[in-house]
């Protein structure tokens, strides 16, 4: 629905970034990444992408559980994590059109990949989407809570960041 809304009301935009509400997004790094990959994004979706993953068949996993009836294949097509991905309006408009012919699937990132796959478009894995904080912590004396870690030029997104912390990151000046 978000993509349909974008096509209907934002048809003069060039790029779309979808993210979850518990994500810190390093906007300056994201803008740079989009500018560096304008051509690639005309026929791809990019972020933290996995080329193959098995469906979760464990019924105890309520959110990610996928029965054989819901998805009979042993592996999902490649997909980019729904925590944050980017693409062009070109891709989104085509996904919205083809989605009318793709059966509903409960996991939005997998559903998007089903549409992208059907269109013959690609996935593009970008560094910096939900990276390990290990290498970044080294620059700040192993302080994983230092707000400047999140403004590092190699980080694009970080998952499970509370809104108060996101505000703190944005308000803290870094060298």
Structure description:
The chain has 175 residues and is an alpha+beta fold. Helices cover 30% and strands 18% of the residues. The protein has helices at 2-9, 27-36, 89-98, 108-119, 134-137, 163-171, and strands spanning 15-19, 23-25, 44-50, 79-88, 122-125, 157-159. The protein has a four-stranded mixed β-sheet with strand order 1-4-3-5. The mean pLDDT is 91.
Produce the secondary structure layout.
Blueprint: H1 2-9, E1 15-19, E2 23-25, H2 27-36, E3 44-50, E4 79-88, H3 89-98, H4 108-119, E5 122-125, H5 134-137, E6 157-159, H6 163-171
Parallel strand pairs: 3-5
Antiparallel strand pairs: 1-4, 2-6, 3-4
Protein name: Hexosyltransferase
Subcellular location: Golgi apparatus membrane
Enzyme class: transferase
- Largest sheet, if any? 4 strands, mixed
The secondary structure category is alpha+beta
Shape: globular
Q: Uncertain spans, ≥5 residues at pLDDT below 50?
A: none
What order do the strands of the largest sheet run in, or round the barrel if closed? 1-4-3-5
InterPro entries: Glyco_trans_31 (IPR002659), Nucleotide-diphossugar_trans (IPR029044)
Pfam families: Galactosyl_T (PF01762)
Keywords: Glycosyltransferase, Golgi apparatus, Membrane, Signal-anchor, Transferase, Transmembrane, Transmembrane helix
GO cellular component, one term: Golgi membrane
Question: What brief labels describe this structure?
Answer:
175 residues; Glyco_trans_31; 30% helix; 18% strand; transmembrane; two-stranded antiparallel sheet; Hexosyltransferase; glycosyltransferase; transferase
């Amino acid at each position: 629905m978000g993509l349909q809304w974008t096509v209907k009301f934002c048809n003069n935009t060039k790029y779309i970034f979808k993210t979850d509400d518990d994500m810190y997004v390093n906007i300056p790094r994201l803008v740079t990444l989009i500018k560096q990959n304008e051509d690639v994004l005309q026929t791809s979706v990019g972020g933290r992408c996995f080329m193959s993953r098995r469906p979760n068949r464990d019924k105890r996993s309520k959110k990610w559980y996928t029965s054989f009836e819901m998805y009979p294949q042993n592996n999902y097509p490649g997909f980019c994590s729904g925590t944050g991905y980017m693409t062009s309006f070109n891709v989104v408009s085509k996904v919205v059109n083809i989605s009318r012919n793709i059966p509903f699937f409960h996991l939005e990132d997998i559903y998007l990949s089903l549409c992208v796959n059907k269109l013959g478009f690609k996935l593009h894995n970008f560094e910096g989407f939900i990276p390990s904080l290990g290498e970044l912590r080294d620059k700040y004396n192993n302080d994983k809570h230092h707000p400047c870690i999140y403004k590092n030029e190699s980080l694009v997104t970080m998952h499970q960041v509370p809104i108060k912390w996101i505000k703190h990151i944005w308000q803290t000046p870094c060298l």
